[in-house]
Every structure is written in structure tokens, then in C-alpha cells.
Design a protein that fits this description.
The chain has about 525 residues and is mostly helical. It contains 25 helices and five strands. α22 links the parallel β1 and β2. The longest helix is centred in the N-terminal third of the chain and has 31 residues.
Length: about 525
């Protein structure tokens, strides 16, 4: 919303009268907030140059590249029908646009998807501000937005092309429209619940586990609303059915058969614990390590904000999501990304409260001479948060595990010059981006890791005995022009590579410390 020069304000059509009245006190227009967030997120997208999790490429961009250009690898999840094409289709249409504009060149194909995601991230930032403003006012909203932009994990992860990133944006926008989330003093405008339901259904269609969040919100709405029958039969069932129907039709078109993705997803991840194949953690991992690392140094402010605000609807949602996800054996940071911004709203509340405390009971006058010499508690808090989060954000985004992306970016440019004929990746499966980065339809081979009822996969056998595996593997390969591997396996395969006339052509720094395997300090590219 823009303020008029004469001090009056233009009422936004989605604001209630109470909101519109309080909005007059805000010095910021929503357009200015969005443009600020968009500029920040686009810079953020350009600064992300590291590899975090295979799904960013293999479950989104790789699938989209196959749809748009006719080549790209589909992992076993797509054969089993546990993924919907709804999320990759968004990037496929974007790729088509780039091709139409003749911009599908290596440097653009590498950067453009995250730049597209930055637009959705900026929308999420805007609605975090709007939700905070509706609940607590401008003082909290601006500090909640500060916390969102300053948090290291949001900087590191939000602009990546995970379905979790879009789910997070849809969660923030959806919560803004749900009446049950708001206080009784700031009721939602008429009809907003339908928008909230549509966004919740879309989030679940993109990522079925988003239902964990929306079951909580739906039950809260069911408890608080006075028109329960209307909510269930006129809004919930029709809107949910329309979104599910559209998603099923899209998946029918892409799979060439009827596939009910949410049901297959539920069977694999919840009923058969299929996700445990990728590793398990203790039940308390999200509370003691995962989520606490994501919140990082904002944690004490988050706890203080929860206690001071006493806004149990949102704090209950955080606890609900962390608790239900803790039941599953397989846990990842990004699974609980949608509730990280909610925790940062409470950080905003805590930071805003520091202002009130400093000016209460004439304290400002009494300590004026001291304040001129020493920074206030708020200034110290902001310095502490920035000093702890900025280095972490930049290190994780620019340095840690960047070698696999650098190697593929290099091969993409070399392939565009006709210097690459075929590539073999002698490393754990899905350790690098693939055709979506290379953008060249030439033969490539990586080590398969499709679950096989307890039997070791190609990737497992290679990691157990690199030399024996490579010797057997080479008996049946079509001699590649390039081989990519980590330095940790290169030590074992030096003689093998020399015997097959390969020489090192490039070495890329990857990491300073190990994550879940031996230290993979660099990624090495060999050519014949």
C-alpha cells in the first residue's frame, strides 16, 4: 500500500477495516518492501554457488530440462510415481521461454533458475512482513523481515530450486489469508479463507508433506469458526478437489497413466519408511540439532519472542510440525524450512520489544548520557546477529561444497565448444548437477543408487572398493572423453586412470571439512 502525500492512505482490497486503519501508521509501502526484498533475493541468488542437496537439481531442474528439451535423467522416484510434475513444470515453461528468446546458453542456464526462484522468495518475504504486520504491527514486521533476510539458512536455502522453497512461500502467503491464524482484533476480510485453502491445497499438491502444516491450521479453523459446515462442504472439499483434479490431470498427461502421487508418496515415506534408505536420525534431531542450527543465533530471541508474545497459535504450529516430522526416521534440514520464517516472526517481536523496554518509565532520559557512549541493547543484538550470520551465509553459499557445481559449469562451457564427447562420474550418485547444467545432449553415466531391497547399489560398491569396481566397470564402458571424481577416490584410482590414458585437466576446490563421508576436498576432472 502506498501512502498519499497528504498523509492519507489507499486501502488495499485484501485488508480489513482494522488492518487498513493500522496500516496508516506504517511508513513503508508494500511495493517498496517487495522491491527491496526482490533486489536482495536476486543478489542472494547470484551469490549461491555451492551444492547442498541433490533434489535441487535432480527432482526439479533435471525433470524440467527433460520436459523442455527432450533429454534429462529421471530418477527412480519418477518411475514409482511418488513425485508430481507440478513443480518441475514451472521451470520447464521457464526453460521454454529461454529457448524461445535464444538465451539457453551455459551462463544463463546456470543462473536463471535460481533467479526465477528469487522472485517467489521475495513474495514469501513480502507476506512474512504482511503477516507480522497484521498480527503485531509495523514495529514487529520490520524486524521480522530483517530477521528473515539476515538468517543464514534462509540466505543459503530459500533461493534454491527445492520444492520446499516454493512450499515455504505458499505457506507464508496462505497463513496470511487464514482467519484462524489472526487475532480476534484483526479479522481477515470476507472470502480470504478461500484463498488460504487454495494456497494450502497447492502447497500439498507440490509437496504432500505440507499437509502436516495445513492439518494444524485446518483444525484450528474448524475449532474457531462458527460456520463449520460451510467451511467443510462449500470451501474445503470443492477447492481441495479442484486442485487435486488439476494436479492429477497434469500427472496423467506426463506419466501417460493415472497416478495418484499423494497416495504413492504416503505409502513410500510413511507406511513403508522408504525414506529411511537415505539415512535416519534420532527422534530429537530437529530439536537438538537440525532446527536449532537453522535458527542459529536467532534462537534465544525466538524463545524470548514466543514467551513475551504469548501468541500460541503460531508457536504451536512450530512445535506441531517439528514434533510430527520427528516421528519419521529420515530427517533433513529443508523439510522444516516452512516453519523457519514463522520462528523469525517471534525474533522480530523480541527485537521490537527491546525498543519498548528502553523507553519505558523514563529510562531513556535517565540513561541518555550513557547511550551516547555505549550502544543500546538493540544495537548490540543486531550487531551480534549480523556478525554471526553473514559469515556463515557467505561461507555456505560461496565456499562449502562448491566443487561439484564448478566442475559441471566448466564441462558445460567446454561441451558448448565441442571439447567434450562423453562423461563418466566415478563418485557417489547424484553428487553433481546433470543435463540441466550441461545443456548438451551427449552421453553421460553416473553410478546408480536405486534402492534394491538391501542389495548394495553401484554407488555403494564403488565406495566400498573403488579400484575393483572401476576395473570391472571399464570392461563394459564406451571409453569416455572425461571422468569426474573426488580427490578422496582419486588417490585409489591414479594407476587406473593413467593406464586408461587419462590426464588431469582441472581441479576444483570443494570443501574444508567432511560432511557424511571422508573429506572430499576437491573435485577433479580427467580427460583422455
Amino acid at each position: 500500500m502506498r501512502q498519499r502525500k497528504n498523509g492519507s492512505s489507499i486501502k488495499h482490497p485484501n485488508l480489513s477495516d482494522a488492518e487498513a486503519k493500522s496500516q496508516k501508521k506504517s511508513p513503508y509501502s508494500l511495493k517498496d518492501v517487495f522491491l527491496t526484498c526482490l533486489g536482495f533475493r536476486m543478489l542472494n541468488a547470484l551469490l549461491i554457488q555451492t551444492y547442498f542437496n541433490p533434489d535441487e537439481h535432480w527432482q526439479a531442474l533435471e525433470v524440467a530440462h527433460r520436459i523442455a528439451f527432450g533429454y534429462g535423467h529421471l530418477t527412480w522416484e519418477w518411475e514409482e510415481g511418488i513425485r508430481s510434475y507440478l513443480h518441475p513444470m514451472m521451470f520447464a515453461l521457464f526453460y521454454k521461454l529461454l529457448a524461445l528468446l535464444r538465451l539457453d546458453i551455459p551462463c544463463v542456464m546456470i543462473k536463471a533458475p535460481r533467479l526465477l526462484q528469487s522472485i517467489f522468495s521475495a513474495v514469501g518475504d513480502l507476506y512474512l512482513y504482511k503477516l507480522s504486520f497484521v498480527l503485531f504491527g509495523d514495529g514487529v514486521a520490520k524486524w521480522a523481515l530483517f530477521s528473515q533476510l539476515a538468517n543464514w539458512f534462509m540466505f543459503f536455502c530459500f533461493n534454491r530450486t527445492f520444492s520446499n522453497s516454493l512450499e515455504t512461500t505458499l505457506t507464508l502467503v496462505g497463513l496470511y489469508y487464514w482467519p484462524s491464524v489472526r487475532s480476534s482484533l484483526n479479522k481477515a476480510p470476507s472470502g480470504s479463507r478461500k484463498w488460504g485453502l487454495a494456497l494450502a491445497a497447492l502447497a500439498c499438491a507440490i509437496r504432500p508433506t505440507s499437509a502436516v502444516t495445513w492439518v494444524y491450521v485446518g483444525l484450528l479453523e474448524l475449532y474457531l469458526t462458527h460456520d463449520r459446515l460451510r467451511f467443510i462442504f462449500v470451501e474445503l472439499i470443492p477447492i481441495g478437489s479442484v486442485v487435486l483434479g488439476i494436479t492429477c490431470l497434469l500427472d496423467r498427461l506426463m506419466y501417460d497413466s493415472w497416478v495418484l502421487v499423494p497416495l504413492n508418496f504416503l505409502k513410500f515415506n510413511f507406511l513403508s519408511s522408504g525414506g529411511d534408505y537415505y539415512g535416519t536420525h534420532k527422534w530429537h534431531w530437529y530439536f537438538t540439532q537440525g532446527f536449532t542450527v537453522m535458527v542459529f543465533t536467532f534462537l534465544p530471541f525466538c524463545v524470548a519472542g514466543i514467551i513475551k508474545s504469548k501468541y500460541w497459535k503460531l508457536s504451536g504450529l512450530i512445535l506441531w510440525v517439528l514434533g510430527l516430522y520427528s516421528i519419521l526416521g529420515h530427517k533433513e534440514f529443508r523439510f522444516v524450512l516452512p516453519v523457519l520464517p514463522i520462528s523469525l516472526i517471534f525474533v522480530g517481536y523480541s527485537l521490537a520489544a527491546l525498543d519498548e523496554r528502553g523507553s519505558r518509565n523514563g529510562a531513556k532520559k535517565i540513561s541518555s548520557c550513557i547511550c551516547n557512549k555505549w550502544p543500546s541493547r538493540k544495537q548490540l543484538a543486531i550487531f551480534f546477529l549480523l556478525a554471526s550470520n553473514i559469515p556463515m551465509a557467505l561461507y555456505m553459499s560461496l565456499i562449502h561444497q562448491r566443487g561439484t557445481e564448478d566442475a559441471m559449469n566448466y564441462l558445460s562451457k567446454e561441451a558448448a565448444k565441442g571439447k567434450v564427447k562423453s562423461i563418466v562420474f566415478l563418485m557417489p550418485c547424484h553428487a553433481t548437477p546433470y543435463y540441466s547444467t550441461l545443456h548438451n545432449n551427449l552421453p553421460m553415466r553416473f553410478l546408480d543408487c536405486t534402492p534394491n531391497k538391501g542389495m548394495p547399489t553401484e554407488s555403494d560398491r564403488f565406495m566400498m572398493d573403488p579400484v575393483s569396481f572401476a576395473v570391472d566397470f571399464a570392461k563394459n564402458w564406451s571409453h569416455p572423453s572425461h571422468i569426474v571424481l573426488f580427490d578422496s577416490e582419486e588417490r585409489h584410482l591414479k594407476d587406473f586412470l593413467i593406464s586408461h590414458s587419462f590426464r588431469e585437466v582441472r581441479r576444483f576446490f570443494h570443501a574444508h571439512f567432511k560432511v557424511d563421508r571422508d573429506l572430499q576436498a576437491s573435485v577433479v576432472v580427467y580427460a583422455d
